[in-house]
Amino acid sequence: MAGSPDSEHAAFLSALRALLPDDGLLTQSEDLHPYECDGLSVLRELPLAVVLPRHRAEVQAVLKICQQYAVAVVPRGAGTGLSGGARPCAGAIVLSLARLKQIRALDTSNRTARVQPGVRNLAISEAARPMGLYYAPDPSSQIACTIGGNVAENSGGVHCLKYGLTVHNVLALEVLDASGERLEIGSQAPDSPGYDLLALMMGSEGLLGIVTECTLRLLPVPENTLVLLAAFASVVAAADAVSAIIAAGIIPAGLEMMDQLAIEAAEDFVHAGYPRDAAAILLCELDGTEAELQERLRAVEKLLQRQGATSIRIAADAETRLLLWKGRKAAFPAVGRLAPDYYCMDGTIPRKRLAEVLEQIAIWSAEYGLRVANVFHAGDGNLHPLILYDANVEEQLHAAEALGQRILELCVAVGGSITGEHGVGVEKLDSMCAQFTPAELAQLHRIKAAFDPEGRLNPGKAVPSLHRCAELGAMHVHHGQLPFPELERF
Amino acid sequence: MDQRERLQEQVREAFQQSRPLQIQGAGTKRFYGRKTADAEPLLLREHQGIVDYEPSELFVTLRAGTSLQTLQEQLAEAGQMLPFEPPFFGAEATIGGTLACGFSGPRRPYAGSARDYVLGVHMLNGLGESLRFGGQVMKNVAGYDVSRLLVGSLGTLGILLEVTLKVLPRPERELTLVHDTDMATAIVRMNQWAGQPLPLSASAWDGAHLYLRLSGTEKAVAAAQSKIGGAVLDENDGILFWKNLREHRHVFFQGSAALWRLAVAPATPPLALPGQTLIEWGGGQRWLRGQRDASALQTLAAEHGGHATLFRGGDHAKEVFQPLPPALFALHQRLKNAFDPHGILNPGRLYAAL
């Protein structure tokens, strides 16, 4: 492109203006501010512009204009992400998919839903409900978060132990690559030919392509559901109870644990009737036919008692069940009321290491002078420590971040991962250096380049540069040997 | 027996000399994919052993050369199983080969496919670099999901050294019911019942009978049985039926005529095709025999949201998988190049130009 940077900038914006309706392009600072961050509000940046296309053809045209002017693109759904994945980059546009919000088709006989990316997660289950079907993954933000964002993060939810993550429940995607080329990935039929690009797209945080349509698998709504609430005198006892249930061959629909600080916060907030004196509670959801459920209920009750539960409460009616879940699903905002700010972590660990990890977190919590509440997807090992701090007190944000980084490194050290469901985004780039070797990171970069050779889709997110990791001094040396020691690292 | 170093050494050398490698487990699935020119074998079979198994954590980590038999015996001892019920196609079958082919069995439409149960891999890419992706935990969104990408890639992107799989408890009870029906009715019923909260775990239509397997607690199976009805297959006959189907020992699969696999949207009505059809996976997988016009089959499958594969027999020198649209194929080539820049890993096994 010829011309001065200013004239090029103007030409780029006027190309977008010619394409989109008046309200489809935002360029004024006051209109851009709502887009300066996602759910991780400590990271902010104003984009060059925000575009809000209405359908695939407009998305495609926007991508072609961005390619022509070499402008980077940050895709965005509802902006509920917690790792800065949708945080704008300077000089990039934000591509909001919020207006692509049609449920295109519900196919009862094949039990699928074809939806645009801006459809809210919960809206899909609501639409499918009259057919006795629903969409299984249910992240806590499901009222607001969109399916496009769920694909980008491979979102889970409290039922993923039994019903899987987004990757297990999406059958096909229509994707536009960085140049606007349309790709159909996956299908309603099992096992598509070629590479499993569908798996690769899941959790790719908008770096590989822009999703413009999703075909989802719907499941029959279970006949009956009930929830048990069990209190324990220690987190170890609660964790052992989880292992005992699974070892008995029972896979509950949901299995959640909260520690004392989280219990108190949730109880103050939603009054779900959680036992305040418990060191930990377990919420265990069972589903199935009435007869099966009664049988399972007795078995689980017996196991919980044997594992030392101090009290057990059963919610068989929908109202109580929802109330018990509400306490759990509102745990983040509830904990948010205990301090001016909180920092939410998202590590995963093998469940058997839970006690030692929590113990270590408690030691560090005292050391840093920051309280930590713990919410745990106990069935699948996904731990959410919530670090309480006050951004107005000098150095507390840094202390919270430093504590968070140590917790994530601990998760990796015990055989887990730095992120179970919130994604890397911008937030965990440094932690990625602890989880992956330079050769592994280089492989991830080569995958990105295969999809987006110019690196214009969500640049600087999800996978740190080798340079960044090297500077961080966190470079991993496995078996005392760097792979390809002859390569330059700095 | 850890053979990692030997394998890595061999791949590094092959990379440096741009020498193609033919990745080999037990050789039970050599029939699958394109027939390629003989190349230096990379032997995985000795690289075997279960490295870590925690029944209460629901995962198992094992080397790729471990036999499926060994794995399943270990899991059974703890009352667990591989939920995707993979076929063996030979007693010596390895887990590495099973995943490289992406094979799943009768439970697939109800429990998920092979890739759904992969949690992590330790692999070698075409540069001979030793890489780990995923892990031993159920949820992990750090980095792209390379572990699942490798499933079904027929060794063309990387060599599986070690894999971690999610495992599940075996059902308390299984029961097989049989209905006499025609194809159209069988497809309708399979899909109607799949839309209800019933503990279905397998379904098939063999030309005259619809077979349905129920798995779950004693009570759940009994309740579903009273809803679905039909003749009950004796327990051992039931086990044998699904095993024979899975292993292609059912009479439909006998003989040397070419075997075609059509994958379609499950509720697709009967397709106008000459000869017999055997249906599995709730209607999503349909088998055909004999000489066929590949492109006509592929067009037909595509019209119903799917694809056709020359699974076994016939001319495997030509393409056996459905051709991909040009833009998608170009992306496949760039990905192949991202993992295997010298094109040394099973070249041509998946597609001639890959």
Largest sheet of chain B: 8 strands, antiparallel
Could you list the spans of chain B in which at least 5 consecutive residues all have pLDDT below 50?
A: none
User: Biggest protein-protein interface?
Assistant: A-B, 99 and 86 residues
Describe the strand arrangement of the main beta sheet of chain B, using strand numbers: 13-10-12-11-15-16-14-17
Would you report the number of β strands of chain A?
Answer: 19
Q: What Rg of chain B do the Cα atoms give?
A: 21 Å
What does this protein look like?
The complex is a heterodimer of chains A (490) and B (354). The longest helix of chain A is centred in the C-terminal third of the chain and has 18 residues, at 396-413. Chain A is α+β, with helices and mostly antiparallel strands and 490 residues long. Chain A has helices at residues 5-19, 29-32, 56-68, 121-128, 147-153, 160-163, 166-169, 197-201, 235-247, 260-270, 290-306, 318-329, 331-336, 354-368, 396-413, 429-435, 438-451, 466-472; strands spanning 25-26, 49-51, 73-76, 93-96, 103-107, 112-115, 133-134, 170-176, 182-186, 210-217, 219-220, 224-232, 254-259, 280-288, 311-315, 341-344, 347-348, 372-377, 382-389. Chain B is an alpha+beta fold and 354 residues long. Chain B has an eight-stranded antiparallel sheet, with helices on both faces. In chain B, strands 3-4-8-6-7 form a five-stranded antiparallel sheet. Chain B has a two-stranded parallel ribbon with strand order 1-2. In chain B, strand 11 and strand 12 form a beta hairpin. The longest helix of chain B has 14 residues, at 326-339. Chain B is globular and about 65 Å long. Classes of the chains: A alpha+beta (490), B alpha+beta (354). At the A-B interface, strand 9, helix 8, helix 9, helix 11 and helix 16 of A face strand 7, helix 5, strand 9, helix 7 and helix 10 of B.
